[in-house]
Amino acid sequence: MENLKTILSKAVVDIFKQKFDTEIAAENLTFSDTSKNFEGDITLVVFPLLRYSKLKPEATGETIGNELVQLDIVESFNVVKGFLNLIISDTYWSTYFKGIFANDDFGKGVQKEKKVLIEYSSPNTNKPLHLGHVRNNVLGSAVAGILKAAGYQVHTCNLVNDRGIHICKSMLAWEKAGAKDTPDNTGLKGDKLVGSYYVEFEKSLQAQAQPLMEKVLAKDFSDINKDEKQKIQDAVSRYYDADESKKADLKDAVKTLIRNATPIMHEAREMLQKWETGDREVLALWNKMNGWVYDGFDVTYKALGVSFDKTYYESNTYLLGKNIVEEGLTKGILFKKEDGSVWIDLTDEGLDQKLLLRADGTSVYMTQDLGTADLRYQDFKMDQSVYVVGNEQEYHFQVLKLILKKLGRTYADGIYHFSYGMVDLPSGKMKSREGTVVDADDLIDEMIATAKKNTIELGKMDEFTSEEAGNLYRIIGLGALKFYLLRVDPVKRILFNPQESIDLQGYTGPFVQYSYARIQSIMRRFYKDYQELQVQNLQDLKPIEKELIIKMSQYPDTVEFAASELNPAKLVDYIYELAKLYNKFYSELSIFNDGDDNTHKRCTLSLMTGRILKSGFNIVGMDVPDRM
RNA sequence: GGCCUCAUAGUUCAAUGGAUAGAACGAAAGUUUCCUAAACUUUAAAUGCAGGUUCGAUUCCUGCUGGGGCUACCA
After folding, report:
1. Percent of chain A beyond pLDDT 90?
2. Does strand B come within 7 Å of the CB of A269?
3. Does nucleic acid strand B have an atom less than 7 angstroms from the CB of A503?
4. A1 pLDDT exceeds 70?
5. Residues 35-94 of A with CB under 7 A from strand B
6. Which end of chain A, N or C, is less packed with Cβ atoms under 10 Å?
7. CA A197, C1' B56: Å apart?
8. Residue A513's pLDDT is what?
9. What order of strands is seen across the sheet that includes strand A153-160?
10. What is the distance between the alpha carbons of residues A311 and A298, in angstroms, rounded to a whole number?
11. Domains in chain A and their CATH numbers?
12. Of A498 and A10, which is predicted with more confidence?
């Protein structure tokens, strides 16, 4: 069906042709919602048209308004300064509403050719998922859902960082602790077990690094092996020579070198090299421990309700990356330093030199990302590739895109880093060393437990079986959590206040869910009392009824907008507003005590509202309950 | 130092360059013989600072102040 703005745009273009003898482009017309302080269903902003009309704002508005009321759909108008407020006829809204009511796919965009691949989650296998990953997963699956709803061909993937020094640290610590704990004999979730050994490793590392640091700062280098001695001596003298203002940074630099110079780090790096050369024992251990981690991740993903069309593993792609590095060397895009390390010089692009292969031949993050990029393109041939990764990696993706471009990869242009802000706690940043990281599983459990507690307190569980109840708590708890994370513009940091996040009132997921459940309750009663819903002409629309229809009419545009902006918050906010408006409608008007016509009309409106609330929530990965 | 990013009621968030800047929480007051009060109604309360572009700036540009990030042979 033709959209209101389209109809009005055409009419206004005609008016300008006839009245002012000028051609204006329909795209230049700005229609906006009418401000609450004025009467109208939709507003045309006439300021931009003054140069065509050559009249004052009021006169221009009057002229356009006088012509528009000739249309059946425009009932009346008023002009305030440069704003032409139009009142649209009930007949139009009635016809329009019947159209969208009959459309099962209302809100969904037309199918598009464009193919998009969305990568999100991307965990490391050395520790469990935390709140930061939760934001990533929730955003990633929401963006995928929105693009799908907007009509794009969407695929999702996960890139698991399953190899590298971090997992070797856990492996080493596990071996040193006797190599006997398993998820089975400890009862721990696999990722938790492996993560605990990562923590163990860090403790041992700390224990070795601290005395070494003290010695070195006292200029005693006897415990440093000769390969590292020179660098460390240099760093220490830079530290002592520096001004006060720079001392902290330079001390950190020394610390980093010291950490790398500890015996336990040497062991970890040896293990990594063994891994890269295919040492069977190391590989077996690696497989075993990663397997535990995947079992653990599966539980978390399932609890979060996210999934992927394809999972990539760095262990399968880093070699491809090494080949690409070779290719780059051959093409003269990359260069080798004396120590054998490979770099790209991006100083011409305003960036720095970037390492692609270590001196010992092992690969870094960038190396495997190059390989993965090629592989993904072979698999999906996508037009656009969205990486949902935190904003601390903006530089990385800038470099990745540049390198791929220099290598002549045509798909490089389609690479888009969906960069989102970090999650902070009221106490500040999450820091694993300080134990302030919010664990994903714990968080989910806590949300569900709070949902349970509140629901029981409200005494609403009489009609539920225990299975239904458990399901309800899960829907509410996750709805609260996801809504809390999605309602904020992705580019912004989120302040995660545990207290607030589990609020179930106000601007929250449960508010929307409650509105939906209310509607279902209405509809249950309706079908009990009446045979079937008669979708008649909607007559005598009350202001709130019309407002509700207008709000519903904006759903498809909102989905489209959220897709073009890649911003789930736009859709989430709209759904909340619709629910809020519905609650107002619900309290202002009686559905069952105002005559049969009104009952049918208001149930039709209720049913449609419910469909949109559900559809919108589902798109971004949330669920709604039939009763709560 | 360089690059990127953010700054709006007491707090957490909104506002395709458009009207008198919206919500929620918190604060104050009210609504339940009637469809689910996890709701609704009312009150008080905000654009960091200084310029510029524009008919019009919270939005775009410049500078400043403040927070965060990046600038690793970590990922």
Report:
1. 79
2. no
3. yes
4. no
5. 35-38, 40, 43, 45, 47-48, 80-83, 85
6. N
7. 61
8. 98
9. A310-313, A153-160, A115-119, A384-390, A415-420
10. 12
11. 4-88 (3.30.1360.70), 118-425 (3.40.50.620)
12. A10
